[in-house]
UniProtKB/TrEMBL annotation:
One of its GO terms (biological process) is L-valine biosynthetic process. Pathway: Amino-acid biosynthesis; L-valine biosynthesis; L-valine from pyruvate: step 2/4; Amino-acid biosynthesis; L-isoleucine biosynthesis; L-isoleucine from 2-oxobutanoate: step 2/4. Keywords: Amino-acid biosynthesis, Branched-chain amino acid biosynthesis, Magnesium, Metal-binding, Oxidoreductase. Residues 292-416 form the KARI C-terminal knotted domain. Mg(2+) 2 binds at D300. Residues 93-291 form the KARI N-terminal Rossmann domain. GO terms for cellular component: chloroplast; mitochondrion. This is Acetohydroxy-acid reductoisomerase. It comes from Phaseolus vulgaris. One of its GO terms (molecular function) is metal ion binding.
Length: 416
């Protein structure tokens, strides 16, 4: 396989030329009409063609962004620290295996933790919790709850959760028997089943979420959580498999783990903050920082749609089109495009920051960079504002719920 030839500067050159000249191919709107705002960003970023020269080669300055208010919390079990990140103070709890002995105290009153769902987060969170509680010599039971007929029963059994030991069972029996219910089924399934879930929860029990999506859905239909339960969230900043992998690595390499945000939305009896922090520490989070459920769903969905899905998709599409339009064969164009996303540029940004990409360029390359950067800055900002509005207004949440329902309809009609 021939090595990809992309360097930092050639990718930037291709991007700047893409911005400066209209694409000769038309984009099929119908094939994308059903997709949500992640792909809207990708489509719109392709429409940036032609706006490069208007702004000229001068670098734009970043507009001032209002810092979020400092979120404070009190814990009777864990030590809170104030740290300064990019000029803003933030309270955090530093995790570590040396804190596992504090878990029984922080989880006081909890006999059973129900982990509902076995998707990405379910397996990771359930196994991490079980291992951490075992290390703390706690007798709290971690029980997996799955829907009737779920194919995940076999996988959960393979990970050591069994009906015989009372650590695996039916979703509704697990919800009603747990003092802390970690709801890790898909967000659209949460939106479609919340009434039944709430009605099965014990009074004064704690609902644990890993996303604010359900709050966003309830807000969009003018509802809130029942007042007789606490509602908390611990949201790992990584996919389930990495939450598990880094936790296992953390047994040997001190400090390995995925950071998490936490939120206390409702606290019926004063236990919620310590329970949320214990959940995060038990998952192996090196740093746990405070957020609100509302901030969590807005920032997470916006970031996911805008950057992870939208921007990356848009960059890949435009680079590939540009390379092939310049005469490169598709195989090499593909390799160069992938290398532009995963190679030297992303490594430089990850390890030394965005400015290091610019500083590594020659004077001529810097001019090309400035042209591309300035041409894309404001149009991208417009698109990202629109993405944010779609999330903040509830439109994006509605589209996810509707997409989930279309999936059920298809699943149902296929099985007839
Ligand atoms: N994915 C991530 O990396 C990530 C990161 C941070 C936070 N989160 C949050 O974590 C939560 C879980 O997400 P996930 O990605 O781990 O899971 P997911 O893949 O979205 O959902 C999978 C689980 O949902 C269950 N499920 C789907 N429809 C259901 C229904 N109608 N009734 C009962 N169960 C149903 C599935 O059951 P079966 O096993 O029977 O198929 C499966 O166990 C979400 O709130 C998500 O936003 C996810």
């Amino acid at each position: 396989m021939a090595a990809a030839t992309t360097s930092c500067s050639s990718a930037i050159y291709a991007a700047s030329e893409t911005l400066a000249k209209p694409s000769s191919r038309s984009f099929s709107a119908t094939s994308l009409a059903l997709q949500s705002s992640s792909s809207k960003l990708a489509i719109k970023s392709l429409r940036l063609s032609g706006c490069g020269s208007a702004l000229g080669a001068r670098m734009v300055a970043a507009p001032a962004v209002k810092a979020p208010a400092l979120l404070d919390f009190d814990s009777t079990v864990f030590k809170k620290e104030k740290i300064n990140l990019a000029g803003h103070d933030e309270y955090i709890v530093r995790g570590g295996r040396d804190l596992f002995h504090l878990l029984p105290d922080a989880f006081k009153g909890i006999k059973q933790i129900g982990v509902i769902g076995w998707g990405s987060q379910g397996p990771a969170q359930a196994q991490n919790l079980r291992d951490s509680l075992a290390e703390a010599k706690s007798n709290i039971v971690v029980k997996i709850g799955l829907r009737k007929g779920s194919r995940s029963f076999a996988e959960a059994r393979a990970a050591g959760f069994t009906e015989e030991s009372g650590t695996l069972g039916d979703i509704w029996e697990t919800v009603s028997g747990s003092d802390l219910v970690m709801l890790l089924i898909s967000d659209s399934a949460q939106a479609d089943n919340y009434e039944k879930i709430f009605s099965h929860m014990k009074p004064n029990s704690i609902l644990g979420l890993s996303h604010g999506f359900l709050l966003g859905h309830l807000q969009s239909i003018g509802l809130d959580f029942p007042k007789n339960i606490s509602v908390i969230a611990v949201c790992p900043k990584g996919m389930g498999p990495s939450v598990r992998r880094l936790y296992v690595q953390g047994k040997e390499i001190n400090g390995a783990g995925i950071n998490a945000s936490f939120a206390v939305h409702q606290d019926v009896d004063g236990r919620a903050t310590d329970v949320a922090l214990a959940w995060s520490v038990a998952l192996g989070s090196p740093f746990t920082f405070a957020t609100t459920l509302e901030q969590e769903y807005k920032s997470d969905i916006f970031g996911e749609r805008g950057i992870l899905l939208g921007a990356v998709h848009g960059v890949v599409e435009s680079l590939f089109r540009r390379y092939t339009e310049m005469g490169m064969d598709e195989d090499l164009a593909y390799k160069n495009t992938v290398e532009s996303i995963t190679g030297i540029i992303s490594r430089t940004i990850s390890t030394k920051g965005m400015l290091a990409v610019y500083n590594a360029l020659s004077e001529d390359e810097k001019r090309i960079f400035e042209k591309a950067y300035s041409a894309s800055y404001y149009p991208c900002m417009d698109i990202l504002y629109e993405c944010y509005e779609d999330v903040a207004s509830g439109s994006e949440i509605r589209s996810v719920v509707l997409a989930g329902r279309r999936f059920y309809v298809r699943e149902y009609s296929f099985s007839l």
